[in-house]
Design brief:
single chain; 50 residues; mainly alpha; 1 helix
Length: 50
């Protein structure tokens, strides 16, 4: 009997896709936080010059 049966392949792919989704979501979250920080910085900088 082979170790590469449909059940094991599906389990592996599900685990792999879950990990890839986690990495992708973390990257999106970091970008959103960076946008917020830069927006705050620019707002503070603009309010100081006015």
């Amino acid at each position: 009997m082979s170790r590469n049966n449909e059940k094991n392949i599906k389990k592996h792919n599900d685990k792999l896709h879950k990990a890839q989704d986690r990495v992708k979501n973390a990257e999106i979250l970091r970008k959103e936080k960076l946008k917020q920080i830069t927006k705050k910085f620019h707002d503070a900088k603009n309010s100081d010059t006015i």
